[in-house]
Write a structure and sequence with these properties.
3 domains, Dna Ligase, domain 1, Rossmann fold, binds adenosine monophosphate, nine-stranded antiparallel beta sheet, globular, 376 residues, four-stranded parallel beta sheet, single chain, D-amino Acid Aminotransferase, Chain A, domain 1, 12 helices, alpha+beta
Amino acid sequence: MTPPETSLPLGATIGILGGGQLGRMSAMAAARLGYRCHIFAPDADSPGMEVAAAHTLAEYDDVAALHRFADAVDVVTFEFENVPAETLAALEGRVPCRPGTRALAICQDRIVEKRFLAEAGVPVAPWREVTTEAELQAGIAEIGLPAVLKTTRLGYDGRGQAVLRRLEDAAPAFARLSPKPLILEAFVPFTAEISGIAARGLDGTVATYDAIENRHRHHILDLSFAPARLPASAAAAAQAHVAQVATALELVGVVALEMFLLADGSLLGNEIAPRPHNSGHWTMDACHCGQFEQHIRAVAGLPLGSPARHADAVMRNLVGSEGLAAWPGILAQQDVVPHWYGKLEARPGRKLGHANRLLPLDTLHALDDAAATSGL
Ligand code: AMP
């Protein structure tokens, strides 16, 4: 297929807001497609800067630096959704931003996100907006306990939330999390956490990866199993839900949708990330076109690649000192593809790399967890 005329020419520069591992792996995929990347981030030790053709070291509210950045690149994307909306707004109009401010704004606020999911046709758990302790009490009366109280903005990896099991938990949780705007959600008795990953191209085409089952440890993603061991109808629903989200967001790029699987096989949407996602790292080695290449293809206006899976995969995150200690063992495995992010300090909770164990196609479902994760 000839690339559409709207696609970026070879040698063009893609600007990436954020310099973490997602920016790094996006830049590596971009280089393979013949593009340069320019990373904009406030931290000098950004893993993305190491592998990018250029970088700007500046704060996200430095408008002069943002304007210089806009002039130096052909298109802008971001690698994390907590980029201030004003930062993207300062760039839009000067340079195409993919995704744009609308998708970013929807995913930055849990209340806007919940409304959006329901409108996009993805069911969500009952929730209430909470700004006062009286609203919290009223919310608990309506939704019941247990429930989860979360800040509406800037929460990730379990930060900014509290599980309320008894009425007495409400006041201390409110005191800890307020005065930020809060959301009270019914506690979902999920049997598994599932994610769906999709890409949407500039022409509106959507490509969806197989659904993934995720396991967390200390609130951080530990393992992803691909494909998720799900009844076929639930797997198809998970893929349909993330495709609905990509279309309704009018996204150009990759999006992840985190979902809860219930005992009856139904799914509830939890959170959207409008960018490549940790639970999609297995696609780098087990699919024809991995999520980072797919993101760059979308942002560059190229046709999307095939999301088809040619192997089953289990991904383990390498986190903190434990992740560092596991690295030599990972390198010794013949069926494991190692990825290190170039971070020098193994701080607790810090994602240092990941490892993708590849298995023959359609064999994962027959393995128990110990067999599936051996060598990881
Ligand atoms: P989040 O920041 O919304 O992704 O939540 C982090 C983790 O907390 C999720 O991956 C779940 O394990 C858990 N969690 C979040 N919301 C709920 C909920 N409403 N019911 C049960 N568990 C939840």
